[in-house]
């Protein structure tokens, strides 16, 4: 009896805390949760209060979503259908849910995303990862002005088109079957994290990253990227560059990120000789080439490449390097790293 009472008390306190937190996050005091998780449901219940703002139906046995399942839920802001074997979603199922901010459809059996209708104007988080998506309509991810985070990883997508998402921070498209970089119809001015690893991307357009000026984290590892050198010059804020397990033959152009880069992973490519970067300065009629440095790079992974030697002054460009990996290269003489900080 004591433990039952304590469990109820803790549950009530947790729900109160969650309500306060959600009210803070959404800027409203109107918060009503309906939690029907883990109940073995095979369809959406019909007794959901029409005033509900957060509806969780996670880990049930729901297989389809009908046109009237969320009818009259005008205040719905968060819908979580995670971990259901949903394979069909009626086109007009969300047409009335114009205030929907968070939509979670991960771990379902959906092969195409459901129409969002007017929710496109307010949606902030869209999760349809670990599903069966094999295609997305061309205009589906166009003009979503409030979207912050997009999770579409672990699907079967071969191409994706994005644009008019001025507040988008994170794109998770890894572990799909993308053959090309996501098509960007406009600049994504707020994008900081781009995760594209474990696809089959072979080419990166020379001007691609001019549309992602604030990118800080780039994961392109485990692809088939051949183009060399990749032009990362538009990225002046890049911190992490992960390009391991591709087919690069040259060091990528990272000159614009010299002050911000911290982590470079080029493991298992076809690089023969890492380059030393120079910057040209002009003073009136005189010009001077100055060797560039990367003062914040602390991790450099170059193992499993075809590197047979480093130029004598290569490591002068990385004065604060802490970790260097060159295993399984073709070096006959270990490079001079005496200039590196201990």
Features:
single chain, 342 residues, mainly beta, two-stranded parallel sheet, 19 strands
Let me know the number of strands: 19
Strand content range = 15-25%
- Form type: elongated
Mean pLDDT value: 89
Helix content: under 10%
Query: How would you characterize the largest beta sheet?
Result: 13 strands, parallel
H/E series: HEEEEEEEEEEEEEEEEEEE
Measured between the Cα atoms of the first and last residue, the distance is: 62 Å
Q: Pairing-aware structural class of the strands and helices? A: mainly beta
Continuous helix count: 1
Brief sketch in words of this structure:
This protein has 342 residues and is mainly beta. The chain has one helix at residues 2-26; strands spanning 33-35, 54-56, 64-65, 78-80, 88-89, 102-104, 125-127, 149-151, 161-162, 170-172, 183-184, 193-195, 217-219, 240-242, 263-265, 278-283, 286-291, 299-301, 323-325.
Describe the structure.
This protein has a domain at 243-342. It has one helix at 2-26; strands at residues 33-35, 54-56, 64-65, 78-80, 88-89, 102-104, 125-127, 149-151, 161-162, 170-172, 183-184, 193-195, 217-219, 240-242, 263-265, 278-283, 286-291, 299-301, 323-325. The protein is elongated, with a radius of gyration of 25 Å. Residues 8-29 have low confidence and may be disordered. It has a 13-stranded parallel sheet, with no helix packed on it. The protein has a two-stranded parallel sheet with strand order 3-5. A hairpin with a 2-residue loop joins strand 16 and strand 17. The protein is mainly β.
């Amino acid at each position: 009896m004591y433990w039952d009472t304590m469990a109820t008390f803790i549950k009530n306190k947790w729900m109160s805390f969650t309500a306060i937190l959600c009210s803070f996050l959404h800027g409203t005091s109107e918060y009503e949760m309906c939690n029907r998780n883990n109940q073995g449901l095979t369809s959406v219940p019909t007794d959901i209060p029409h005033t509900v703002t957060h509806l969780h139906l996670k880990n049930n046995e729901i297989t389809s979503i009908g046109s009237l399942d969320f009818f009259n839920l005008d205040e719905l802001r968060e819908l979580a259908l995670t971990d259901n074997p949903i394979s069909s979603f009626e086109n007009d199922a969300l047409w009335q849910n114009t205030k929907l901010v968070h939509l979670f459809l991960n771990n379902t059996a959906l092969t195409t995303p459901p129409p969002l209708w007017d929710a496109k104007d307010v949606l902030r988080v869209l999760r349809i990862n670990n599903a069966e998506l094999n295609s997305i309509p061309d205009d589906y991810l166009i003009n979503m002005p409030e979207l912050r985070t997009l999770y579409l990883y672990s699907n079967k997508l071969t191409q994706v088109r994005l644009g008019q998402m001025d507040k988008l921070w994170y794109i998770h498209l890894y572990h799909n079957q993308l053959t090309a970089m996501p098509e960007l119809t406009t600049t994504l001015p707020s994008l900081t994290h781009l995760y594209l690893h474990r696809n089959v991307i072979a080419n990166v357009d020379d001007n691609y990253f001019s549309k992602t000026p604030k990118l800080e984290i780039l994961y392109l590892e485990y692809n088939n990227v051949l183009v060399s050198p990749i032009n990362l010059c538009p990225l002046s804020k890049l911190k992490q560059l992960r390009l391991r397990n591709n087919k690069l033959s040259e060091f990528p152009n990272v000159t614009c990120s010299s002050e911000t880069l911290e982590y470079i992973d080029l493991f298992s490519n076809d690089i023969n000789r890492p380059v030393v970067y120079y910057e040209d300065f002009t003073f009136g009629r005189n010009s001077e080439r100055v060797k560039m440095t990367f003062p914040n790079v602390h991790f450099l992974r170059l193992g499993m490449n075809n590197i047979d030697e480093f130029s004598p002054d290569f490591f002068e460009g990385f004065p604060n390097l802490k970790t260097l990996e060159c295993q399984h290269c073709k070096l006959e003489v270990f490079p001079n790293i005496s200039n590196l900080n201990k």
